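User: Can you predict the 3D structure for this chain?
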Amino acid sequence: MSLFKKIAGTFEKFPVLEGILPVKASQIPLDIIAGITLAALAIPEVMGYAKIAGVPVVLGLYTLLLPMAVFAIFGSSKHLVVGADSATAAITATVLVTMAVPESPQYIALAGMVALLAAFFLIISRILKLGFIADFLSRAVLIGFLTGVGIQVALGQVPGMFGVPNEGTGLLLQVVHVFTQEISLMNGTTVLLSILVLGIIFCGGHFFRTIPWALLTVIGAIIASWALDLAAYGVTTIGTMDGGLPVIAFPVVSPDLVPDLLGIAIACFLVILAQSAATSRAYAIRYEEKFNENVDLVGLGLSNIAAGMSGTFVVNGSPTKTEMVDSAGGRSQLAQVVTVGIVLLVLLFLTVPLSYLPRSVLAAIVFTIGIRLIDINGMKTILTLRPVEFMVALLTTLTVIFISVGWGIVIAIVLSILAHLRHSYHPINVLISQTPEGKWKSAPPSSGKQAVPGLAIYRFGANLYYANENRFTGDILDIAKSASPPLKWLCLSASMIGDIDYSGSESIKQLHGRLKKHGVELVISDIRDQVMRQLEKDRIIELIGKEHVFDSYRDAFVAYQELEAGP
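Assistant: Here is the predicted structure, written as structure tokens:
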């Protein structure tokens, strides 16, 4: 056995390098190409995210260095790409701009502390196995949330694209101010550059999607700025960038300010949890691969520790960057390792050329990133198929735009939970009966359909718990009271019930007694194993009698017919 195989075999026993091993020789060239492609597309993108977050542009590149490398080592997903993200960058900026001057040392330290706090919550969530929280962000709410973030990000770049200062409170007022009060301050060359960049990215991306138009516009703008001395025409550039490797240090923040950062860190944590888990799960399903959400939580937590200690801001699993790698043929974290190497070369040797980049060009690139997050088609589809869920998504969008991204994610989770409760509170409950041809069909409880005279089979369509027990009890009692002919048996088909809480258990006991008074026997069928254990523990099986428990409602049907037929 070769030394490489021995090392690989050792690592496979521990939760490290799960996103890389086993290495397939035939896949290595594709992963290298995908890593180069990711670097070409992601470098201008993360520079834009740094601008959104309010930190120096070079810190965007830092998110593609240590944090990406750490996740490649400690993460589980072979596909998830970790780096700067528009949503967490926007969340970071909304609070920190009220605490310090953007790009100042204090601001950068606060951003680093937010990353460390987010890492703390990620690690705790792994210890407490809280990954299920991600499931409480419905797809509809996520579409609304990201649409709101996209609108906020895009509108926030309008002053920068036209080379005028941000004035007024609120994004909409800022945009109105630009076009009503600051037209005379606009620089013609700056405006022309922004329009040209937007045209190239949108038109080029429409006709030739595989070409990295954002990177080409950055390169072209840098060359034009240097060769034509655009600064002499009033075009503002990024200016001198500190090159080299990041300094590893703990962010120095006053302890009094840490409580003020907890809310923003929790908001970032929730976005990371939901977005990263959803992305990893989607690609694992696509390629029929296993991934461990708990290992990913550790990887994401360690990545954010690396971010905070290397002087940059929160990192997240990025759906867009993950798709960049996948589209280029990458199938493992080896592609991200290649990207790390390229970013390292850029930081060591190419920061001087980047200093010539016009700020308006970067603002225009960020504007296109925001526009891509706005999912009009997704919102239309939700409106058409689920109008109620559309209102939830729209409310989330408006919260993000008019209040804040942080409150947006809180509202998103609350609304998702309320939507879940609404579905479980109003489950689809049916009566099951037979057609004259002997086929089984379902009908609403109000129909009073009986399987055979004297037997009603009622299927409850959700878990039975405190919020829907009254509906459960009310349905069955109404069926029994209005039955014609009168019922002798009422069969509860529990195939859709995966859990019964204390209130639900007590409601079954009370229901059994009330049905008995009406001369109706309660029988149960289609019970799942875990529910059976609950019913046995709560002594419900003992109450109704084991002879009244059936494997399926068909068995209950046969037993009732045999009982009626007599000996």
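The longest helix spans residues 258-286. Residues 14-172+238-353+373-420 form one domain.
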